[in-house]
Amino acid sequence: MRVRPTPKVAVPVMHHRWANITFLHWRYPAETLRAMVPGGLEVETFDGSAWVGMTPFLMDDVRPPGVPALPWLSRFPETNVRTYVRDGRGRSGIWFFSLDAGRLTAALGGRAGYWLPYFWSDMSVHIDGTRWWYRSRRHLSGRPGARGDVRVEVGAELTGPARDDLASFLTDRYRLFTVVAGRLAAAEVEHAPWPLHEARLCGLDQTLLHAAGLPAPGADPVVHASPGVDVRVGWWSR
Fold first, then answer.
1. The whole model's pTM is what?
2. What is the average pLDDT across 157-184?
3. Which InterPro entries match (predicted)?
């Protein structure tokens, strides 16, 4: 299993906890995704395939440095649709196709302040021991928008050989990419390695991939889960 170096964010602009996260990943041909990422980035592959992830989770303890978390504003569900890329310097990271947030303030702030494709959605996360449920319905001009409903059963933690190179490739990601004023930008993300668990998909009803312009995946997803990590997010660097 390869271990990616974890960057250090000297001056964070935000603190988060990404809690009760499920990683769903599908194989895609790299050529399918090439036109969907900006110039300056290339699609990163593993075992000859590009990968698209859908990651529902609970965003918690969201706050700027030195500011206490607020009970309502600082906790909300989120679901990301993303793929994995490298820039011209060979640095790996995440390219987001969409981010759905259960708080309007978070969606507006993510678009205006962080240049990411956020959407406001009606969302919930329910945790009952090893059974995790996620529900998402995107608000879209008075009509039903894209949905993302997921149910999983979480199993044992993956350690040693069970935590293989594919799991590392799909989850050990410490950099985000976006486009700011027409120019590619990157932000570092600092957190401990994910404590990954095996997970069984019990139910999936989603149109988020289609809404992002992606064709339907050709097989069932690879599934992992994690209780979460504490995160420090840096500012964009062009």
1. 0.94
2. 93
3. ADC_dom_sf (IPR023375), DUF2071 (IPR018644)
The residue behind tokens 């799991």 is 167
CATH H superfamily, domain 14-71+88-233: Acetoacetate decarboxylase-like (2.40.400.10)
CB 98 within 8 A of CB 210: no
Instruction: Look at residue 2 and tell me whether its pLDDT is greater than 60.
Output: no
| List of residues 6+ apart from 141 with CB closer than 8 A | none
Q: Which of 3, 1, 2, 6 is nearest to 234 (CA)?
A: 6
Q: Is 201 helix (H, G, I), strand (E, B) or coil?
A: strand
pLDDT of residue 44: 98
Task: DSSP letter for 67, please.
Answer: -
For 18, residues 6+ apart whose C-beta sits below 8 A from its C-beta are: 57, 58, 59, 60, 191, 228, 229, 231
Sequence-separated (6 or more) residues with CB below 8 Å from residue 171 = 23, 194, 196, 224, 226
d(CA 82, CA 98): 7
Q: What is the DSSP string of 3-36?
A: -PPPP--SS-SEEEEEEEEEEEEEEE-HHHHHTT
Distance CA 107, CA 67 (A): 20
